User: Fold this.
Amino acid sequence: MGAWLRHRLPERVDVDAMLAEQRFVLDDGRALREDEPYSPHTFVWFHRDLREEAVVPGRIHVLHRDERLVVVDKPPFLSTIPRGQHVAQSVVVRLRDELGLPELTPAHRLDRVTSGVLVLVTERRWRGAYQQLFARREVRKTYLALTQHRPEIALPTAVRNHLRKDRGSWQAAVVPEAPVNAETLVELDHVVGEHAALRLTPTTGRTHQLRMHLCGLGLPIVGDPLYPEVVDVAIDDFSTPLQLLAHELAFTDPVEATQRFFTSRRRLPLEPER
Assistant:
């Protein structure tokens, strides 16, 4: 098993050190020995060492809290869930500790660079009911985005196309002549000097949908590191927030059938947080 682990995890972890420290364990909690005979279809459990993460600036404002839900106003650059290089610096890990809610789970997700309203479920028993609301598209979402003001582009307009995001690719792509799978209503909310704040109402939730749809109109979002061109930004560079805000969110509560409505406290333009 020791030889198999070295083959399976050649660069991800220090296998020798972790075997010596008995940090690989089997399903029954017993430490895995290096000379243990190889056994196929066996689960081996371990916690990898976490790299030191730069602290993401900005507060997670709690907009609402009750027995079932915690609704927060997420700052930019903070992941929703632990993923990749962002583990401790995620909404879930921070709030589980801060609020003393070990089962806290998001009902949906926001991109790391997107700010605004995020709904989390306090306990595992409530998770399915609220996550299904989002899966069935029964949640009404409104975003605000800051772009260049281009009065020659007629608004409001509805953008409909087919978007595909391939694994390993930074950007999504439009697939011509494929069935529509992404739709966004784009409206002018107000003008801010040379910029326009646009109100976006998506009826679908494809990866990078809002960023792609505005870029396709010739209105890329200010501060976007991916569209129209990929910009190499250091992982600890928090100086240029993406000007995309999950502004409002509304739904009928699946447990008590009441109307829920939440609005972000943040305003465009978003400034770097401290």
User: Anything to note?
Assistant: The longest strand covers residues 182-192. The CA atoms of residues 8 and 15 lie 10 Å apart. The chain has a mean pLDDT of 94. Residues 1-49 form one domain.
